[in-house]
Design brief:
three-stranded antiparallel beta sheet, Aminoglycoside 3'-phosphotransferase, Chain: A, domain 2, 2 domains, homodimer, alpha+beta, 15 helices, Phosphorylase Kinase, domain 1, 414 residues
């Protein structure tokens, strides 16, 4: 079927007409649809049986950025990157991503499991909902997917062949510009920040040492093909059910259209940064100090658990490597230390770009009081700079924890 | 024309029948040929006008390793990698490579300028011929080609697209195994070394710290796509005319079929290692101490000049970068320092693998006295280990020079 943009009506015809229709719905089922587009990029529909249990999610890439309109063209090839990444994630971490149903290249459509009981985590986290197992689940997901797509698990030629499926030119370029270049220079830029931050922004742009570190992290983002990354692992790419009576919730990792072969620390760091952004932003959301610090302690715990689960999951998998080089204990140790350092550096970049760059986060933007918002943004910038400046010296997760405890003044309550 | 292996007769028909024939020879010229295969991999013919000036080199990839025979299959796709790399080198460093005439994918043939006045440098260097400008020429070639194919010169998408032309699966795998894995482990291996070296080899294989460093260098070789490398830059990939009356010689860089996107220090380090291999080996070739030390001083000078020319050529080109990140002085400095450190580490690996691995070098193999040869091999192993062990601490070329001076006891004569 030649490409055409779907709407609530035509998505029903599309699903009905697809050869795989009866793998997901009862034959002749009456379908209804609902548009639930939410992220910045794509059209998303829920298609479900009237009165029935079954439903699927239909996600279509538009030839432009959805939130920006036709003036910001963007190739719909991203649907293919998402499909291929989803397939790899589903293989390496089954049950952690929406189950893929089909990919339609011509229509730039991915059809997948509809996570009806799940919600995107960012907004509830702003409201201080605690999702049990968050850090551990994300850490284990990262260990599974990053190891499985690295040279540690794949033969050299397999890995390079897989790499040819993920030459994600356009979205990599977008990340390079929006994360690593524009927030650190006055031009060319699509930066957006409150004029009250001008002094902090100018001070950042004059910090030669931080700019040198950012350039290095950017170069590694562009050249270091350690593993297939999710590429956009913020809390808006996570969905979860609310905790059940036993305090359990089901967490899924979605939207891997930015997937590319890059440095592992970029995925880890983005997740860390989004926890820290939330933690700082709580000063504008939490009605009192105790609530604020309680949630911050929860976040810091998830951050550390994410790293520790990633690290132990990775070390366990290292023992399965068939090449003797990867079994060297000294190598394993220094490799994981370098991933931690990268993570901290990338976390710092993400925090800064989400504050003064083009794409902001709800955590900060939704702080109702403007003075409080600016104050929180200032602290995010400060912590981000500190992380970039010190990332090459961070030898263990404890050191990172201490830096965060100090910045958020968590000592007394820890 | 379907693929068939050329011989002295059929190469003439092949050249005569090619549409580009009259761009290289006079119409109707009577041609003769000569087989001059020399490296490990390919068939090479010189085709020339009888009694005339004009000639070309015809290089054909065989579907197996020439020196090993049909039992070691090797895809003839390598002719394409050579053609595309030669084109890039010719663009970035015109006059430094044989001028390409045509590439015939089906026949796996590259036709190029015939360097009749040039000879491969390894053998004359074993005989202590000094080629003026060697270090500077190689350093400038590396600055030109590595910069031009990096993210510093190309737009992100251009670079990634160029990368898709150099997914050199088979030859990368060969380098990974023969340089980074086999020489450091007892199995699986095609290692070849004198039993007199058994104690040194066992000691190397038990050195956990060196093995961890080698694993790291290997991972970076496999994942860090900084620039299009030559990939096999030893002194057998260099040709030169003998010095003329003015002491000038013309130096060319040949045989880039191992080209791939990798860490810049690998090219620099291979060249350094082959100078050092020669320097150590001179104890088995030079009839007296003065001749030996004089040539060693020449080699060390070329090594340092190579680095200094590379560094200054690179710094000069950095100023042309259009992206502000690459203009940060702190970034430029730390990037070049990391390339130097990589170079030293890769040099160490190359020295070791050329001594105990599968592919040896004439410099050591041709030492007539067996005791002298083993002694030289022992010293190569020792220096190689020292370079691997210390490479992350080498902050400037002076430090490397001092290490070499000490190992070769050049103090008194320097």
């Amino acid at each position: 079927m030649p490409y055409h943009i779907l709407n609530r009506e035509s998505v029903l015809e599309y699903v009905r007409g697809h050869p795989l229709f009866d793998t997901v719905f009862y034959p002749g089922a009456a379908l209804e649809s609902q548009e639930i587009s939410d992220g910045n990029l794509n059209l998303v529909f829920r298609v479900y049986e009237r009165g029935g249990e079954r439903s699927v999610l239909v996600k279509q890439a538009l030839p432009y950025l959805r939130v920006a309109g036709e003036g910001w063209p963007l190739s719909k090839a991203r649907a293919g990157f998402e499909a291929r990444a989803l397939e790899q994630h589903h293989l390496a971490a089954p049950g952690r991503v929406p189950q893929p149903k089909w990919f339609d290249e011509e229509m730039a459509v991915n059809v997948m499991e509809d996570l009806r009981r799940h919600q995107v985590m960012r907004a509830p986290m702003v409201a201080r909902v605690q999702f049990p197992g968050l850090g551990r689940t994300v850490g284990e997901f990262l260990a599974a997917t990053l190891f499985a797509t690295s040279d540690f698990a794949l033969l050299s030629a397999e890995k390079k062949r897989l790499g040819t499926q993920f030459v994600n030119l356009e979205l990599c370029e977008l990340s390079e510009a929006l994360i690593f270049t524009e927030p650190f220079y006055s031009r060319p830029s699509r930066n957006r920040y409150s004029s009250a931050l001008e002094a902090e922004v100018q001070s950042l742009w004059a910090d030669a040492e931080v700019l040198a570190q950012v350039a290095y992290l950017k170069l590694r983002f562009m050249t270091d093909t350690q593993a297939l990354l999710h590429g956009d692992l913020h809390t808006g790419s996570l969905m979860a059910t609310l905790p059940d009576a036993q305090g359990q919730c089901d967490i899924r990792i979605i939207d891997p259209e930015f997937a590319f072969f890059g440095p592992m620390g970029f995925d880890v760091g983005l997740f860390m940064a989004n926890l820290l952004l939330n933690a700082v932003a709580q000063q504008g959301h939490a009605p009192n100090l105790e609530q604020r610090q309680t949630y911050r302690r929860y976040l810091l715990e998830q951050l550390a658990l994410c790293w520790r689960s990633f690290e132990s999951g990775f070390l366990m998998r290292f023992e399965t490597a068939s090449n003797p080089s990867w079994l060297e204990p000294g190598f394993q140790k220094s490799f994981l230390c370098s991933v931690l350092q990268d993570s901290v550096g990338y976390a710092g970049c993400e925090m800064i770009r989400r504050t003064i760059g083009f794409a902001h986060v709800l955590d900060l933007d939704s702080i109702p009081d403007e003075l409080e918002r600016v104050k929180a943004e200032r602290e995010v910038l400060e912590l981000g700079r500190a992380l970039i400046g010190s990332h090459r010296k961070i030898e263990s997760i404890d050191v990172l924890e201490r830096i965060v405890v100090e910045h958020l003044q968590l000592e007394v309550l820890l």
